[in-house]
Amino acid sequence: MLRKCKGRYYKYSKDVGVYKPINFELGYFHTWGNDYEEFETGAGNYSIAIVELPDGKIVKVNPNDLKFLDTKEYLEPLEMKLTKEKVEFINKYNINIALSNDGINTKDTRNINILDNDKIKDLFMSINNKEICAVISGYNYNYQELLDYFHNKIGDVHVNIENLKVTWDMPQDIYNINIDKYKEHIHKLAEIAYKDILNMNMSREVMIFLPYLNRIANYQNTTPITCGQMYFSMNIDLSGNIYNCHNSSIPIGTVKDNRLYLLEQQDKWIRDNMPVNCKNCRYFLLCKGGCPNELIKNNERYSCSYLKVFYEQVYWIANMLENQFETVDLEV
C-alpha cells in the first residue's frame, strides 16, 4: 500500500539557472532512496523519498520536505499487520522473521513499540523462526539494559544488536552518543567478555564482541562489505531487478545478469562511497569502510566516533587473549 503524502521538490529552471521549489498537495510515497552531490572532498550521499505524483511523474523529495497524510491510519491498526493466518503461513514455509525494536526507547526511535501490544506480542512469539534486530543509538547505548529489557519482555529470543548508521538527515539526538559514558560502558563489557572467554562461558557479553573477533581471526575470508550484501544475500524485487542494498532504490542489474558482473557493480558501489579517512584507519579490518549508504562528514562516516570506541575494545580483547597463550613448536 502506497502512503499518501504532500511536500515539495526542486526543479531546475534554465531561465534563472537555479532550482525552484514546487509544492504538491498529494503524492504517493514508494520508498526511501539515495542521491549524491559532488564536493571537493568527494561524493556525499544523502537520503531521498521517491514519490509518485497524481499525473504519474516520479520526483525526489528531501525527507525534511515530506509529510505523510495517513500517519494515524498507517500506525494504529496493528492487528492488521500481523494476524493468526499470517503466522500460520510464516511457520508453514519456515520463514525467518526479524522484528526491529530498540527496547524501552523504541517509541523515540521508531514511533511505536508493538511489544507493548499484548495481542501482537503473542502473535510474534508464536512464530517459530524469529529474532529481534535492535539498534544502539543516542537514546540507548547500554547493551546490558537493552538485553535485560528483551529478556524480561519476551524471554530468550535471539537479539541481534547493530550500531546506528546515519543514512539520512535524522535528528541529531538519535546519534548523539555521550562518548565518555559509552567508552566506560563498553570497556566494562569487554572485561566481562574477556573473563568469560577464558572460562569458556558463552555469555551474552561474549556474543556482543564475537562477530568482530571472528573478523580478526578470519581476515582473509571476509567480504568487501561487512553485511555481506550480494555475497551472502541478494535483494530482488518482483520484476527481477537486483539492488545492492535493501535500502537502495536504484537497481544494479537483473536476475539475468552474470553473477560476476553483479559483484563487480557491488564492489564499485562500495569503492565510490568509501570515505577518504578509511584508507589509513586501523579499524578498517573490522568495518571495511562502514555502510556505503551512511552519510559522510569531514571525510569519515557519522558513526565513526562511537564505532572506534567499540572497535578499540575488540582489539583490547584480542590482544589480551593473544597474551594468554604461548607459542608452541609443533614440529617433531
Elements, N to C (H/E) = EEEEEHHEHHEHEHHHEEEHHEEH
| Overall spatial form | globular
Q: On the 0-100 scale, what is the average pLDDT?
A: 88
Widest sheet: strand order? 4-3-2-1-5
Q: Specify the structural class.
A: alpha+beta
Number of helices: 11
Instruction: Report the sheet-strand fraction.
Output: 15-25%
| Number of separate strands | 13
- Helix coverage percent: 25-40%
- For the CA atoms, what is the radius of gyration? 22 Å
Which regions contain 5 or more consecutive residues with pLDDT less than 50? none
The span between the termini is 69 Å
Major sheet attributes? 5 strands, antiparallel
Summary tags:
single chain, 332 residues, alpha+beta, five-stranded antiparallel beta sheet, globular
Summarize the structure.
This protein has helices spanning 71-75, 84-92, 106-110, 118-125, 143-154, 172-175, 179-198, 204-217, 259-272, 284-287, 304-322, and strands at residues 3-13, 18-39, 42-52, 58-61, 66-68, 97-100, 130-136, 159-163, 235-236, 241-243, 251-254, 296-297, 300-301.
Describe this structure in words.
- This protein has 332 residues and is of the alpha+beta class.
- The chain has 11 helices and 13 strands.
- A 5-stranded antiparallel sheet has the order 4-3-2-1-5, with no helix packed on it.
- A hairpin with a 2-residue loop joins strand 12 and strand 13.
- The longest helix is centred in the middle third of the chain and has 20 residues, at 179-198.
- The radius of gyration is 22 Å and the shape is globular.
- It starts with a strand and ends in a 10-residue tail after the last helix.
